[in-house]
Amino acid sequence: MTKYIIRRLLYMIPVLLGVSLIIFLLFNVVSGDPTAVLLGKNATARQMADLREQLGLNKSMFLQYIDVVKSAFTFDFGYSWATKQEISQMIKQGSYPSICLSVPAFVISTIISLFISVFVAYYRGKGIDLFVRVVCIAGMSISALAYILFFQWFFAYKLGWFEISGFEEGFPAFVPYIALPAIIWIVLSIGPDVRFFRTVILDEIYQDYVRTARSKGLSEMTILLRHVLRNAMIPIITYVVIQIPSLILGALLLENFFSIPGLGGITLNALNSSDFPVMKAMAILSSVGYIVFGLISDILYTVADPRIKFK
Amino acid sequence: MKSLVLVLTGVLLLSVGCSKDRSFDERELHLISPEKIAGFDPIQISDMYSGNEAGKVYEGLFEFHPYKRPYELIPNLAAALPVVSADGLVYTFTLKKGVKFHDSPAFPDGKGKEFKSDDVIYSIKRLGDPKLQAKGWWLFDDKIAGLNEWRDKNSALEASNYAEEIEGLKKIDDYTVAIKLKRPYPQFLYALAMPQLFIVAKEAVDHFGKEFLNHPVGTGPFVLPVFEQTNRIVYTKNPTFREKFFPSEGEEGDDKLGLLADAGKKIPLVDKIIVDIIVESQPKWLGFQKAKADLLEIPKDNFDSAVVGGKELAPDLKAKGIRLFANAMLDVTFFAFNHDDPTFKANKKLRQAMSLAWDRAEANKLFYNSSAIEAQSVIPPGLGGYRKEFKNPYVKFDLEQAKKLLAEAGYPKGKGLPTITVQTRNETVARQIIEHFAKCQERIGIKVKVGMNTWPELINKVTKRQHQLYTMAWGADYPDAENFLGLLYCPNSSPGSNGSNYCNPDFDALFKTATVLQDSPERSSMYEKMNEMVAIENPWIFGFHRTKFYLSHAWLKNFKFMEFNHTQFQYLNVDLEVKKELSKKF
Amino acid sequence: MKQNSLWKDAFFRLAKDKLALFSLVIVLIYFLVALLSSMGLLASTWSQEVGASNLPPSLEHLFGTDIFGRSVLQKVIRGTQVAMSVGVAASIIAIPIGVLLGAFAGYFGGWIDDFVTWLYTTFSSVPNIMLLISITLILGKGIFAVYIALGATSWVTLCRLIRGEVMKHKEREYVQAAGAIGGGHMRKLFRHILPNVSHIIIINTSMQFQIAIKSEVILSYLGLGVQGEPSWGTMIDDAKLELVRGVWWQLAGATVAMFFILLAFNILSDALRDALDPKLKGK
Known about the structure:
The structure holds 3 protein chains of 3 kinds. Chain A is mostly helical. Chain A has helices at residues 2-30, 35-39, 45-55, 61-74, 87-122, 127-140, 144-158, 175-205, 208-215, 220-243, 246-250, 252-257, 263-272, 276-304.
């Protein structure tokens, strides 16, 4: 077991090197010379040469790659081109609003989805099950952009239930600001969540132990909650854990539309100003998140499910 | 689990209900910035919105009069206009006494030091510091005696040596500075009013180092201890601000409009400025209507719902006391041909045909609600060099002539002409403008495609001459047509500001003579000549001089449109009585 | 009670199949529309004015007109062509890469497997949205950048699934038997194993297709997608500005068009999985 975990931990290294390689290839090799971009309209050749030197672009490709790798381990990403801000500082400041939005939205949507999926699993095959599934699929088929545009106009402006946009620090000051984007988030994620959870729960319902329990005369609801859900929790938890890193960027469009100064907004802004160091940093950061939470999810899975054999 | 859901939803809904009430006792100014603010280091400012923010905390030696038009330069940190030597090269400035920098940990005891000549010299040197790669360097590049030499010398050093004296920047005493120019530079004083030349303190730059851009320490009317890169910036009144008073004069009619009601009062007039950064136009517009902001630059796309028939304010907005401001801007929009491309360079008729095929009236209606003026050439109305009577024969909509010229150009019905890509900014309206342009060109058989770019990418393509046509708007940096004519001056070709790489020796010769002259009728007539000479050559397809629209709530006082508005906010005021009264309607 | 639910189950399954059939028809219609549009038989005049600016939907202009007086319906159709082409192109890039790498890794194991596993773990470690926007930004935008970006991101899942299935099948008797009568590795892999795992390709493609469509819309909305051609994403981008003045039909047109194709693909991929993947049969 410990051996397995250590192996998985060590495996992070080649993966991180690989991720750095992809990012390096994209941003350092394919993208070309950024100096003209950086200096704006009135640059002189001399200024460009000086800047290349300062940015370390005269270094060999290998050394530049090493820099990317280093940043993946130290989280020292240097300075933004567009804003001249220190990137690690930008990330630190952007994390708070992002977390304020994504964590409650994520927790609530997971709980609601779980609740709905137990409910439809109980009524599986009945009309209500079909109805919920159709609603889920239909909900998933509408563009996220349409939700955002419409909800903001209707709920925040027409009905005036929420702040239209902006953000304030501190609880509960931020709540009126994040409430609507959080609701949109929940609406967006319930569809796929319910579909997945339902499948997992139904997977369990046809197991032998359920039949045994039923023959013992336990009520269907008890079986569902006590036994089935407990077993179904394993894939559910791993599914949930692996989604956590996507919380960092998940709110890309939401943050932009609701003027929430989070990481998603920073990323979009970097995108619109060709701010490569920030794009690079966000790519590295979110990849490291994926790797770490992927690992946690794997470990949880193996710890919880004795059927998995270790290599 | 069920109960947990209930509790969580409950908390969510409850806290939604209790959003904060507006306060009516503090004089707060609520503004919107439509773009992200890069930071508060003056020398790195390159966009208007960052300049507006810096202008709340920093000051320059001069500013533009907030009410007088045409724009008039008045002393700000300088005590008076400078004394200029007979040859026009040496400017002697006297500075205001007793001006204090903001209190800051950068200074001993945290008390802001007094502003003196050293700060002026330091701030100018800093603009030329090769280690900093200032975006505003072009303003003083090759202008001040000894500054370029100092810059070159220092680029080889580990750290720039500020102790070294420069011939052109001489301290006479603590309150007098003499600046010597290499050659006449009539726009020099305008440059000193620009955000790039705001005065900073060496102590603050040294103390905050790389973080200086987040810790503005200026002499200005408002204080911002730390810029936290959030979407809301809150400024408070500077308690140590010097005695500065609201002007008692303005343009004719300003007093009737009540713009001078606060004359003689000490400024700033509000205690606090809150700036919300809102990029998307839907929340911006909805927020203004909910009175979350006092002033709004109307996003083009919300124009119809704000203004009826392109003139009048919509009745529902009027009923809420909202006012509309429409003002001509000092700008020009254009499609610039790349003259490095032989297709366009050698073929004036092709350029003219394309100009004639563009239905400007329709574009004006679609994108500017018919409020823009069709540009006949580069210089916008309001600047010396613009002549109202001048009409460019190729700035009209005439498909027949366009087809004829296209045939004469060697491409009858567009045959043989490859698809032309027009590069533009990655923005909805920018894309739509080209889509419309393409639709027009299709009528004479020319195929046009949109190329979308981020702003830096667009600049990059233009500087590297990798474009066929690009479109842009140019806004005045200062009220001198030189700023516009320079866009077609050959030595300014890419990577300079002449992105069309257009060269015309006659034009260049005139430009050289005219731009070193002080403002005079003689210079204006030279500008006129250049403007009209270049017009019929059509190095660009001339677009529009646009109108800018602002909406303000009734309680916002003293607002008047200003092209160079970094210092404007200290003059604004809020009428709390009116605000309280009207707020019931929102 | 049991009897009852059995009947209901049967009915349910039947209804679902009909639904799946119906979805298939919808998907085919979209393909047909896209094909006709790309051959210039449909909506070839999308760039021409058909009426005044921003006309609301009417009998004459079913979806209304846009700011230039162009038909929104024609733009929707043109957008369908773009969306479907993106799905097809992403599949064309992803299927060969995913299947070949997955098959080799699963079949040969050893260092090949190690390498392929490392490769797809690496790719799946960069969040899709970051990879998509980075690639399109750097490759300089346009529809080809979108194809490549989507191709680069969508082979990963397929590769992983194929690898797993091939590993299982490799040990099966029929493969052993094929080996015994003297089949080479390639023959075993391509003649015997791959046909038996091909259902995974179908299921996965139908899922990836809708991801591709969604991604194209987001990328175009961000200005990274198609240039100079209508796309559902740019239509929504337009709508963002028009909505406050009550011009809702561009948003509606694009959203409705997107809704039906995504719905159809969602139902279809569910049904395909149920029908083709024996593990999930009977649920």
